[in-house]
Amino acid sequence: MLNPNQKLSNAQLAALLILRVVIGWHFLYEGITKLLNPNWTSVGYLMDSKGFFSGFYHSLAASPKLLPVIDALNEWGLVLIGVALIMGLFTHWAIYGGMLLLAMYYFSHPPFIGLTYALPSEGSYLFIDKVVIEFFAMWVLSLFPTGKIIGFDRLLVKTK
User: Fold this and answer.
1) How far apart are the C-alpha atoms of 139 and 92, rounded to whole Å?
2) Which end is more exposed in the chain, N or C (fewer Cβ atoms within 10 Å of the end residue's Cβ)?
């Protein structure tokens, strides 16, 4: 975490703020597109899982009682994380929630040699894909309290 006595330059703060907002937009957009599509479900994605944890993801998809909960958590999690990051509200929770969601996506569809998926990827990856890059970008954001500097978290902080 940033030392309270250490100041960010305007350029550093602007870069972190832009990073927070664009990641927030990505989450928000992904969530809204799922919410607006009445036929969307995570079942295909979960059943397409490969790798070490595929059994876990397949069991989620096979549960008729759990699948609607998983779908709702995914849709609304993406939307709420996105809104929170854009607004700088509950930023700490949004960042770690987003990192958890990204980790779940990564372990469902790891970019390992020999694994192919029904949906094409956006490039040829080996271990590092856009999910990992966004995960580490969020880790960087977790180290700087941008919501407390520029965001609604500022209203939640007790002033001395």
Assistant:
1) 10
2) C
Cβ-contact 95, 85 below 8 angstroms: yes
Q: How confident is the model at residue 124 (pLDDT cuts 50, 70, 90)?
A: low
Quick one: what percent of the chain has pLDDT higher than 90? 79
Neighbouring residues of 43: CB distance < 8 A, sequence distance ≥ 6:
61, 67
Strand pairing partners for 126? 128
CA 65 to chain centre: 25
For residue 115, give the amino acid letter: L
Give the residue extent of every domain in the chain: 22-40+69-113+124-153
Read off the pLDDT of residues 27-79 as tens digits, 9 standing for 90 and up.
Answer: 999 999 999 999 999 999 999 999 889 999 999 999 999 999 999 999 999 99
Could you tell me the two tokens for 70?
């998983």
40-52 in b/e burial notation, b at 16+ Cβ within 10 A?
ebbeebbebbbee
